Amino acid sequence: MKISNKPSLVRLPDVFLPVALLAYSALCPGDALAVRLYLVMFAVLLGSLFAARGARIAFARQPAMRDVRGSVKSALLLTLAGGGVATVAAALAYKGHFLDNWPLIAAGTLLNIEHIFYEYMYAIGDSRSASLSRGLTALFVFAGLLLANGQALWIASMAAISALVALVVGLVMGDGARGRTNGAIFRAAPRAALQTALYPAAALAAVLSLRPARYSASFFAGLALYELCKTPFRRTAMEARGFNYVLLGIIVICRFSDVPVVCAALLIAAVCALILFGNIKKKSV
Predict the structure, then answer these.
(1) Which of 10, 153, 213, 269 is the most exposed place for a label (fewest CB within 10 A)?
(2) pTM
């Protein structure tokens, strides 16, 4: 069997973690633990200036590996700072209940660190290790959610294993930790913020407007589609042709579907992806 090494804008492992959160939400529809974990991950991202998500954008502009390694260091430092910001915010907001929330904050920070090394593996051309690492992360997170039963320390432990695996593989395959910190992650922050926050913000607006009884699984279904569409930059007209047709088809199907909450999430995700990553021109449709 031949394995194609042809570069692709679509990376299937990008959906592994959202699908793990989706699976847990579907199995435990009355439990908001997956949503809480996602919110904490997002809070750490916000405090870090979206460093883990900005890494992919920064890497795309850096042909020299020493610059890529420097961006990894910058992203790690910002993510640790983001975890600190989230910890202080939680301590102020929850006060006496902080001890109940710190494992989730730790998990959110560790999963952001794992994401940095996941992106790094792709940057050094090791897509197989990246796929394996992200697959293990999704599996560990799913297991941690199932085992938690009110003890979020399980999730933090599984997140720690995920981050450790990604770190070791990334450092070994990436030939060490050389390279000086640089400002590429800061420059990528505005684009990373927009790409990361657009779908969650649109989905939140829909939840507040429509007030569905349950929405967790639907949200993660939309997130999986949105993550699958992500690219560092907008696609060219030629690259966007098939992409546009697929998303427009999803929008039409969801518009007339009888599964309102799930299809609303997929429709929102498709529209957001089309706006940010598509290229609506005569040559692309």
Answers:
(1) 213
(2) 0.92
